[in-house]
Specification:
The chain has 246 residues and is of the alpha/beta class. The protein has a domain of 124 residues: HUPs (Rossmann fold, 3-Layer(aba) Sandwich), CATH 3.40.50. The protein is 53% helix and 12% strand. The chain has 10 helices and 5 strands. A 5-stranded parallel β-sheet has the order 3-2-1-4-5, with helices on both faces. It is globular and about 50 Å long.
């Protein structure tokens, strides 16, 4: 009887307890399980493919009939190199089925001899995925129980200093904002009070000018100095001589 080999492909960034649960289930069903780590240059990963392979090997320890490889081509080509006739895929919820169904049909078209076996993880991990784990860890949340201990340690090492720096930046007042707030206070007053205080000298000067003008009496005809009779006759003589010049 030929050896039954299954390939379990994925990105595994990082390897979670859900992945580990599926690996153990597959190892009970097949003679050999090949965990195939996908190299996807277009997808930003937290760990390199070598680091992921190292972590998975550390987690698996001495688990028999399980090996770890990585690939950068089609998964059907990887399965062919491993001699696998079955590809393991995990189904966590109904929402996974549509995508997995589409991929299974495409892989069947590429390799009709390769079958796909869907396995369900323990109900404790039905909500779990690598993206969610990274987000929780990046924001300082606890991931114990979600990933193996070795992976948790690597996560903390990789993300060390990320959250404290973010928290410090959030807690520290913005320098530009602080400068703006300082400029809003003039001589210890708020903007409105400062504006009123700035207008007070100009208003006082205008009021003083108006007071001076009001204090100075306007010259009236009654207070104008009276002209002498001789000056009056001279003025009338100038006016008469000017009117006669032709």
């Amino acid at each position: 009887m030929s050896e039954r080999i299954a390939v379990f492909p994925g990105t595994f960034d990082p390897f979670t307890n859900g992945h580990l649960d599926l690996t153990r289930r597959a190892a009970r069903l097949f003679d050999r399980v090949v965990i195939a780590i996908a190299e996807n240059p277009g997808k930003a990963t937290l760990f390199t493919v070598e680091e992921r392979a190292e972590m998975i090997r550390e987690v698996l320890g001495r688990m028999k009939r399980v090996e770890v490889v990585h690939f950068a081509d089609l998964v059907v080509a990887c399965a062919k190199r491993a001699g696998a006739m079955v590809m393991i895929r995990g189904l966590r919820a109904v929402s996974d089925f549509e995508f997995e169904f589409q991929m299974a049909l495409m892989n069947r078209r590429l390799s009709p001899a390769l079958e796909v076996a869907f396995l369900m993880p323990s109900q404790r991990y039905t909500y779990l995925n690598s993206t969610l784990v990274k987000e929780v860890a990046r924001l300082g949340g606890r991931v114990d129980g979600l990933v193996p201990v070795a992976v948790e340690r690597r996560l903390k090492q990789r993300l060390r200093g990320t959250r404290p720096a973010a928290a410090t930046a959030a807690a520290a007042p913005d320098k530009a904002g602080a400068g703006a707030r300082e400029t809003q206070r003039v001589n210890g007053r708020r903007p409105a009070a400062a504006a009123v205080a700035a207008r007070r000298p100009a208003a006082a000067a205008a009021a003083a000018a108006r007071g001076t003008a009001a204090a100075a009496p306007a010259r009236s005809p009654a207070t104008a100095p009276a002209r002498s009779p001789a000056a009056s006759r001279a003025s009338r003589g100038r006016a008469t001589s000017g009117s006669r010049r032709g």
